[in-house]
Amino acid sequence: MAKFTVLNHPLIQHKLTLIRDKHVGTKEFREVANEIAELMVYEITRDLPLEDVEVETPMGKTTQKQLAGKKLAVVPILRAGLGMVDGVLELIPAAKVGHIGMYRDEQTLKPHEYFVKMPTDIDQRELLIVDPMLATGGSAIMAIDALKKRGAKAMKLVVLVAAPEGVKAVQEKHPDVEIYAAALDDHLTDTGYIFPGLGDAGDRLFGTK
Ligand SMILES: O=P(O)(O)OC[C@H]1O[C@H](OP(=O)(O)OP(=O)(O)O)[C@H](O)[C@@H]1O
Ligand SMILES: O=c1cc[nH]c(=O)[nH]1
Ligand SMILES: [Mg+2]
């Protein structure tokens, strides 16, 4: 079973508390969601492999480290995942970006896929799937299914807020995918929202409610 990790750096906790506040508007919600994503990626990439490279400084030749291994791609689950992409790209500006469009039926809570556009070489990349909310887990599971079907082999799921139900569901269906969250919240409500959560992350990011 892959790891589930809560990245509880004090800055991450503080910023998440800021955007939980229902009075925070679209501009601040957007800015802070990206800041949290950036801090999370800083933590998640701690163990990226390095290799030696020779470089000539103005003082002479030296052997130093550079990133080795698989290249990265960011995969937001639309819409709300878009709210984390800029934060990730701040740290990994050369990453490719694949998009998966998914919406959850409000009555059944079942996800529906409406768009997939991936870099052609996803089989050779490590994918960071981003979505602010992991609720029932249905959307993340379907997104990972879609990526695996297209050849993806290495991926991590990065969410701001996870519900225990969603973590369990993803771990059961995709035991090879590590999950990172800024917080593990208490439970899902009977309408499928995370409590205490953030509310509807897509609506809060894009001002659609
Ligand atoms: O774990 P689940 O129960 O599947 O719920 C989580 C999903 O719900 C939200 O998307 P939503 O369907 O609201 O679409 P949106 O991003 O367009 O708002 C959220 O961004 C996740 O993708
Ligand atoms: O709490 C939740 C659950 C699913 N999607 C959201 O945007 N928020
Ligand atoms: Mg939504």
From TrEMBL:
Cellular compartments per GO CC: cytoplasm
Cofactor(s) recorded in Swiss-Prot or TrEMBL: Mg(2+)
Protein biosynthesis in keyword set: no
GO MF: GTP binding; magnesium ion binding; uracil phosphoribosyltransferase activity
Any single GO BP term: UMP salvage
Cofactor, how bound (note): Binds 1 Mg(2+) ion per subunit. The magnesium is bound as Mg-PRPP.
KW Transcription regulation (keyword) present: no
Pathway named in the protein's UniProt entry: Pyrimidine metabolism; UMP biosynthesis via salvage pathway; UMP from uracil: step 1/1
Catalytic activity as recorded in UniProt: UMP + diphosphate = 5-phospho-alpha-D-ribose 1-diphosphate + uracil
Keywords: Allosteric enzyme, Glycosyltransferase, GTP-binding, Magnesium, Nucleotide-binding, Transferase
Binding positions (5-phospho-alpha-D-ribose 1-diphosphate): 79, 104, 131-139, 200
All residue ranges annotated as the Phosphoribosyltransferase domain in the record: 6-208
Positions with a binding annotation for uracil: 194, 199-201
EC number: 2.4.2.9
Coiled coil: none
Regulation of this protein's activity per its record: Allosterically activated by GTP.
NCBIfam families listed in its UniProt record: PRK00129.1 (NF001097), upp (TIGR01091)
Function: Catalyzes the conversion of uracil and 5-phospho-alpha-D-ribose 1-diphosphate (PRPP) to UMP and diphosphate.
Family: Belongs to the UPRTase family.
Name assigned to this protein: Uracil phosphoribosyltransferase
Organism: Lacticaseibacillus thailandensis DSM 22698 = JCM 13996
Gene: upp
